[in-house]
Every structure is written in C-alpha cells, then in structure tokens.
Automatic annotation (TrEMBL):
Keywords: DNA-binding, Transcription, Transcription regulation. InterPro entries: LysR-type_TF_proteobact-type, LysR_HTH_N, LysR_subst-bd, WH-like_DNA-bd_sf, WH_DNA-bd_sf. Gene3D superfamilies: 3.40.190.290, Winged helix-like DNA-binding domain superfamily/Winged helix DNA-binding domain (1.10.10.10). CDD domains: PBP2_CrgA_like. This is LysR family transcriptional regulator. It comes from Paenacidovorax monticola. PANTHER family: HTH-TYPE TRANSCRIPTIONAL ACTIVATOR TTDR-RELATED (PTHR30537:SF5), HTH-TYPE TRANSCRIPTIONAL REGULATOR (PTHR30537). The keyword Cell membrane does not apply. GO terms for molecular function: DNA binding; DNA-binding transcription factor activity. PROSITE patterns: HTH_LYSR. Residues 7-59 form the HTH lysR-type domain. Belongs to the LysR transcriptional regulatory family.
C-alpha cells in the first residue's frame, strides 16, 4: 500500500477530527480512510488513534508519530514544488550537445537573442561529433542527417532543407556560372566524402521533374568528410559545393555565397533535436526548441525569398 497515502490519511483524520470529515477532504470513502489508517497502524505496530462512538483522538504514540508525519509530508510537498519549479520556470541550465558544424552555424548565432528573451537561462553547449551521442545526458542533442536517417530516438525535426549547389561570387566571376549540371565537369568542385559514395561523382536532382537524377563526373579539388571544411573553402573561393540550405542561408542572404543551377539540388538534409524524453520536459527546453525552430525556419525562408518559385524547405509539424 502507498505509505505516503496512509500517512496523509492519518494526518487528515487527526486534523479534521474524524474519518468522515477526512474522507470528504481526501475525496475518499470513510471505509477507505479507515482501511488506510488501519494499515498504517499495522505497519508501525501501534495504535495511533483512539476511536469512540462520539469522537476520534490521538493516542500518545499517535501524537509523537503525527509530529514526524507532518514533517515528512511537508518535505515531500516541498520536493514536489522544487521539481515543478524546474519544469515550469524559465530558469536554470540548458545542456546542449551538437556536432561542430551545427554548434557554430546553428546554435552560436542564436545565443545572444535567446539570452535577451530569457536571461535566467544559462546555456551549456558541448561540442562533439559522435556516431552514437549520449542523448540521455543532455536536454537537447542536435543531429544532422540525410534522407536515409532512421535512428531509434525521440527526435523532433527542426527543418528539412535541400542541399543547394553554391559558390562564392569571387569564384563565379573568375570561372563563370554553370548553366546546367553537366557544366560542373569543367569546374573546381568541393565534395563531401561518404563511405558509400563514388568519389568524383555529383548526383543532382530536379524537384520539378520528379527528382530526376543526373550524375556528373567531376575532378574534385577538395574532398572532406567534414561539411564545415567544405563550407569554409567555398566561402574563400575554392570552388563549387553542395550545402544544406539551413547552413548556407545566412551566407546566401549576405551575398557571400550564390546559389547556382537552381532548382537542381543534391538531396535533402534534416536538422533534428533529439530529446531524452517527451515527458516532463522543462519549460526552458521547450522554450529553446520553439526558438530554435522559429529562427532556423525564418533564416531559411529569408534565403528562399531571394529565389522566387523555388521552395526547398519542408516545415515539420510542431511537436512537444
């Protein structure tokens, strides 16, 4: 039997002066309250209440026990209040885990504005690229994945975007702008190295033609398994590369990168926020998730407005 419930029933009988009154306060039947108190007395091995036909009073053991029970129940109620405060108040430490590229290009630009909105929340970011991140150890773990991603975790999609082909204005002034996918064969290309991909091939998809695919053999000047390395090289004018729009959007808006070959893409890329659990999510976690989703989508939509008629953005439905 629930020991705390038996203690609360005993305290209420003592405070209300009878079983019937206690039953009304606890929204239980008088017989139910009687059973709870009897179980408690059996557990402690002493009679706690003296019952007569006219009144209920505490025995000497009951008076001593009641004093301790009051403190125990007060501590339990206070502990519950503390936990609820952590869940409901916009305060405390928010622990995030992210790979370097998402930490630098997604998280870091949001810190200043989020802190202005919620100054009582401290953000603690752990930056590490792990194949199996310890999601249970953090409030939010950011993950980036392509269309083949199928992890068995609780993950809320933040935004799903196309991988767009882009280059710096300086590179395009020097080498010209490709007009069709086959033109990439004559350009300096920066390729993301995948374990299962064919080196030196860029596969482009046309969303307006049922994702018709075109494979172009290129001579890459740089291959890397680190997307930020490719981004940095593209910004410096090293060549043409594909970047998730969620990462490239700020540079497209600023004019530091230019999209080429629109509406051709190189697949889709989704940013996920993985959570240890959807139950009892702290308010600070919920607030940051909503802020992250809104700002990421706003950034991408601003980049899309530069290209009328092109909409490589999928906005997943909000989830708790």
């Amino acid at each position: 039997m629930d020991r705390l419930l038996t203690m609360r029933a005993f305290q209420t009988v003592a405070d209300e002066g009878g079983f019937a009154a206690a039953a009304r306060t606890l929204d239980l039947s008088p017989a139910g309250v009687t059973r709870l108190v009897a179980d408690l007395e059996s557990h402690v091995g002493a009679r706690l209440l003296q019952r007569t036909t006219r009144r209920v009073s505490l025995t000497e053991a009951g008076e001593a026990y009641l004093a301790r029970v009051r403190q125990i129940l007060a501590d339990v109620d206070e502990a519950s209040a503390v936990v609820q405060a952590h869940t409901e108040e916009l305060a405390g430490v928010l622990r995030l885990l992210a790979p370097p590229v998402l930490a630098v290009h997604i998280l870091a630009p949001l810190v200043s504005e989020f802190r202005r909105l919620h100054p009582q929340i401290t953000i603690e970011v752990h930056v590490e690229a792990l194949s199996a991140p310890p999601i249970g150890d953090y409030d939010i773990t950011l993950l980036g994945a392509d269309e083949q991603y199928d992890a068995n975790v609780i993950a809320r999609p933040i935004a799903s975007t196309d991988a767009v082909v882009c280059a710096s204005p300086a590179y395009l002034r020097q080498r010209g702008t490709p007009q069709q996918p086959e033109d990439l064969a004559g350009h300096d290309c920066l390729l993301y190295r995948r374990p299962d991909s064919r080196g030196g091939t860029m596969r482009l998809l046309h969303p307006g033609e049922g994702n018709r695919a075109v494979d172009v053999r290129v001579q890459p000047v740089l291959m890397a398994n680190h997307i930020e390395t490719l981004l940095r090289a593209a910004l410096d004018g090293a060549g043409i590369c594909a970047q998730p729009l969620s990462l490239a959007a700020p540079y497209l808006r600023e004019g530091r990168l230019v999209r080429v070959l629109a509406p051709w893409t190189m697949g889709r890329y989704t940013t996920y926020a993985a959570l240890p659990s959807r139950k009892f999510m702290p308010a600070r976690t919920r607030a940051f998730l909503e802020f992250l989703s809104e700002r990421t989508r706003t950034s991408i939509q601003a980049a899309l407005r530069m290209e009328p008629g092109v909409c490589p953005l999928s906005l997943p439905p909000g989830e708790d």
